[in-house]
Every structure is written in C-alpha cells, then in structure tokens.
Amino acid sequence: MRTQFICLALAIVLISPFASSQWVQTGGPDGGQVYCFAAIGTNLFAAFFPVGGVFRSTDQGSHWTPTSTGLPKTINIQSLASIGSSLFAGIYYGGVYCSTDSGTSWTLASTGMMNMDVLRFAVIGTILFAGTGGEGVYRSTDRGISWTAASTGLTYSGIMSLEVFGTNLFAGTGGGVSISTDSGGTWSDASVGLMGSGVRALAVCGTSLFAGSGSGVCISTDNGGSWTPVDAGLPKNPIVISIAVRGTNLFAAIWGEGAFRSTDSGTSWSAANAGFPNTRVSSLVVIGTHLIAGTLGGNGLFTSTNDGASWSVTNFGLKNTTVNALVASGGGCFAGTDGGVFLSTNAGVSWTGVNLGLLDTNVHALAVGWSNLFAGTPAGVFRSTNYGSSWTAVNAGLTSTSVRAFAFNGTNLFAGTDSGGVYLSTNDGATWTAVNEGLPRSNNGTAQYAPILCLASNDTTLFAGSSGHGTFLSTNNGTSWRAVNIGLTDTSICSLFMTDTSLFAGSSGGGVFLSTNNGASWKAIDSGLTGASVYAIAICDGNLFLGTDGGGVYRRWPGNIFTGINTSWVEPVAVFKLQQNYPNPFNPSTTIKYELPRASQVSLKVYDILGREVSVLVNEKKDAGAYEVKFNGSNLASGMYFYRLRAGDYVAVKKLLLMK
For residues 259 and 489, what is the distance between their CA atoms, to the nearest angstrom? Predict the structure, then answer.
C-alpha cells in the first residue's frame, strides 16, 4: 500500500501541465535588446536597442529591415501596438508616433498627454490605451489624435505593461498587476501568488494570462485571480521585457538574452536550432567529431558535437564575429572574417588572430594546399607558409583582385573572382593566368565576367558556380568551360560540394541540387528546406549538412538520396521533446511522437486517471532522432488518460482523451 501511494503521488506531480515547460532561444534580430513586438497581417515589428528604431520582418523573423522614417533620430522605443492598419510606437520621453503604411513613415500623435514617457500600449476594440512612466494610463478613442487620463484606483503610476483579456484591462506596475473591468474607468489589485513585483510584460495565450517580471514568467488561468511560475529553461534571474503571441507561438524578450519561444501556448516548450541565435550560416567545417559553423551578422562561430542537435557559441579570442570562410588544416581550424584570419588548435574552443602581413583583413575565402594557406580578399591573394604566422601578397597576373573562392586540382590552384572570372596558378600562387574561355560575361553591359562564387574539383574535373548563370564545367584545368545547367531552376550558385560520385550545388534562392553524372543533369533535393539560400555544404559523421541563409543548419542522411527513399532535410533534433498525440480525442487509435537529441534509454507508458499503468509503448534504448508510436485503446473505457516519456533524466507527461 505504501508503494502504491508513492507511485500515485508521483503521477499526480508529473501530470501537472507545466511540469516540463521550458524556454528556448530563437533567431534575430540580434546584437542588443528586443523591447517589444507588434503584428499587422504577415508583418512582424520589433523595437530594438541599442540599434534604435523599428524593424520589420515579413518572413516570421528570419530577416529584419529598419522602418523608422519620421521617428526622432535618437529614439528608445518602449512599446508597439496596432489598430487595423495603424501602427503605434511609444517612445521614452517622446510620446506616441503613428504609422499607417506598415512602418514606412511616422507622425507624432500625443495631444492631451501630460507625460510623454510612453512605456506600453493596449487596445480594446477601437480604444487605444497608453501606460506612462509617471502619470498612469491614458486613453484615446480616435486612434491617437487626442488622449484623456484613465487611472482612478491605480496605486502605482508607473505603468510597465498593459494587456487586454476578454473585456478586462490589466496593468503591470512596480507593485504587481492591477485590473480594470470598465475600460480604464477604475482599477483594483490582482497580484495573488505573483512572483516578482515589477511586471514589465503581460500577454494572453489561449485561455491563459502570462506575466513577465524581473523574476521570470507566471501564468494565471483564472483571469488574474491567482498566479503560478512557469519559467523552467529561462536564463538565471531573467528580466522579462516583453511577451507577445503570434498564432500558436508565444515569444518572450529577455534583457540581454534576446528572444525565446514556445509553440504550444506555454503548455510545453521546444527548441528550434538550439543555441543558434543567428541563422545566416556562411561556412561549415569538420574537425574530428566537431562540426563548426561560421555565421554572418556578427554572432561568430558555433560548434556542435552531436551531429547538429545542439550548438554552443565558440568565439573566445575571436575579435571579429562576421565569419565568411572556414578551413581545416593539420588538426587546426582557420576562420576568415571581416577582421582577418583566426586560428584554433582546439576544435574551436579558443581562437588567436594570425594576421601579420595580411594587408586586407576582409577575408572572403580560405584554402589549404602544398602545405601552404591561402586567403582571398578584395585586395587579392595572400599566402602563408608558416601556418598563418605571417602572410605575403601573391598577386602577379591577377588583374581582378577581389577573390571569392578557391579550389585545388592536383598541383593547380584556382581562384574565382568578382569580375575577372577564374585564374590559375601552377606555382604555389607566385603567378596567375586567366582561364575564362566559355565563362559567362556579367549582365551589367561591361566586359567583366559574372562573379564566380564557388569552385569545386576532383582529379579530372573542375566546376565553377556563378552568380546568375549557373554551373560551368572544365575538364582541361580551366582552358575551356561549358555550362552544365540542365535541371537547375536557380542559376545563382553559392556553394559546391563533391564526393566520389556526386556533386551538390547550393543556390541563392532555390535550395540544393544534386548531380550524379558530372553536372550533365541536376535534380532538386530540397524537400523540408525553409532556408532556400544554401551557402555551405559539409559531411560529418556520415550526415550531409547544409548551412542556409535564414534557416540555420539542416541535416540529411545522404544514402537515402541515392536509394530513392522519400526523406526530407530536417533541422537536427535539439532537445528532448514529447509532442501532443494526434488525433486527440481519438477512437480507438492515436499517434504519439517524440524526439531524442542523443541516444537514451526510453520508456513511454500510458496511465489512467488514477495513475495505474495501462500500456507500455516503448521500453528500450533508442538512438538520437525523431520517433512515432501508435497507441490503440480499443480495450479501454472512454475517458482521460496520460502518457509519460522518460529518456535519461528527461521526463514529460501529456493528456490524451479516448472517446468511444
């Protein structure tokens, strides 16, 4: 009886819907603090500091552009809101500004406000509320043309957050949460159980209200009557600046930590490109069991030791974090950045600058051959004969000096340039000769050649990827070239990668293509890709990886490509995850999916409402990956059940409903 009571008690604890909630970081904008979000249609807006101003994304956060024309030059935007097609920005001691063209232009809209420190907005119907730093709440019924005070009953006049839940208006202050049930006419306290008094963020997701403070996140499921903490997985002592909802996604902006995301209204949390705040991947390299990714946009280098399932920042010693190229040499790794070349001798753990003699530190390409290291820059080619300790320019004959790519073929070194096509050196880079017969000219009306963005070779063939003209093949060391583009639907080729029998081409907008006949024909193999611009390709531990612009890193088992098995590119599993069964409710069978970032002993069991075990679905060791299992309840009575996944130290529980 004692044992039965203990098991039942554990079951009751585990079925709590927030027992396994966790937060994970998502991409951009990065490099500072995200203060707030707003959405109009498919446009997502973010206020960003210290860059300043409003940024807009039309692709769910993959890319951001500034939209601040008409706003003050020195701005600190605290809040964003929208009514119809109107977008409002609340500025620190600057009042309210309005845009009616999706942020393209802005005008001042603050008449009637006695305090211009506008921190937060809220909307009920066509009524716009503004919370200020010292005068409570203001209300506008004419889309910001005029404002009146609405603060009766507020005990704190500094408004940190505002949110509408049903017909009620909530205000987060330095003293907790207050509620108004009459559109701001009067206010009362609603802070029972709240963790942290400085409530900077409020948001509604489904039937729940979330509050973010300097102590994390709390949830209320009874209209603010009581609160429960839900902050597992957030950084230690998180200062929550903003919470926003877009579709089924819940976003939280954490001071100094960027944005975090939940995809199921806070019931559970899952990773997307875990540890990877920048998804513009420029380069990939493999050092033993380490996969290293270089990124654009200032976030530097990331390393994965579990086939891309999770990543860690590895920038120690890296003085410039815009990484354009990576190359492995003698157990070490070189990174070409906008600030020169850096060397790591410990698989990316730390980096040291190696730039003596490098006259142009904007390094676009790196290559290793003949025991030497070569760097391609806008000022031409530099060579190091001592593992990067010093560099010498080697540009004799190189009439177009902006070098984008290198490739070795036997004793020949080829360089792809921005406007001069391809150059060949047969003497360790000492002299260069143009080898361009058959390569395309630029479309700009000049005699320049189209930019050569990438090169790849094997013993008998050399391939060049161009901007706007596709792929070209040479079988005579560059003496002549011919186009090999049958099947290519995108002719801007950013990356090339060769194996013994296959050639992969990454494009600037059309995904990735495969040729198994030396470029004679191509087929798209981009099922599952969301970042269609492929800048880098690599193989690590038998898996093929793609580095994309806006989609992070994708992985696929190459054997399935050649055997015809219908598989797609996937973002590597980042964390343990138990998904909601589908369908739910069900009769009599349903599917349960789960994900493992590493090999684990897995137990997946089903329990009834009393905590009694009714089915064992999985009880064995599983490799890392995504799985699904069928559960048949034909021998069970209708009602609520629970299924629990245990994988190592990870435990998660979800409900399922059988209806016969």
Answer: 35
Asked if 437 contacts 475 with a C-beta cutoff of 8 angstroms, the reply is: no
Q: Which amino acid is at 592?
A: I
Specify whether the CB–CB gap between 588 and 641 falls below 8 A. no
Residue with tokens 């008690």: 9
- Domain hosting 299: range is 279-394
Which is more confidently placed, 469 or 175?
A: 469
What is the tens place of the pLDDT at every residue in 308-330? 666 778 888 998 888 999 998 88
Indicate which CATH number applies to the domain containing 303: 2.130.10.10
Q: Which of 147-151, 278-282, 476-480 has the lowest mean pLDDT?
A: 278-282
Paired tokens of 507: 């494009």
Q: What is the pLDDT of residues 32-80, one digit of tens each?
A: 455 667 788 878 887 765 456 788 887 766 567 778 888 876 567 877 8
The two most distant CA atoms of the chain are separated, in Å, by: 89
Whether residue 463 lies inside any domain: the answer is no
Q: Is residue 425 part of a domain?
A: no
Q: How many CB atoms lie within 10 A of CB 315?
A: 18
CATH of the domain at 590: 2.60.40.1930
Q: Does residue 338 share a domain with residue 221?
A: no
Domain assignment of residue 522, yes or no: no
Residues 209 and 68 in one domain: yes
Domain boundary among 370, 394, 418: 394
d(CA 333, CA 296): 18
Q: What is the pLDDT of residues 183-208, one digit of tens each?
A: 888 999 998 888 776 888 888 877 88
220/218 Cα distance (integer angstroms): 7
d(CA 309, CA 313): 14
**Does 8 score more than 60 pLDDT?**
no
Total count of domains within the chain? 3
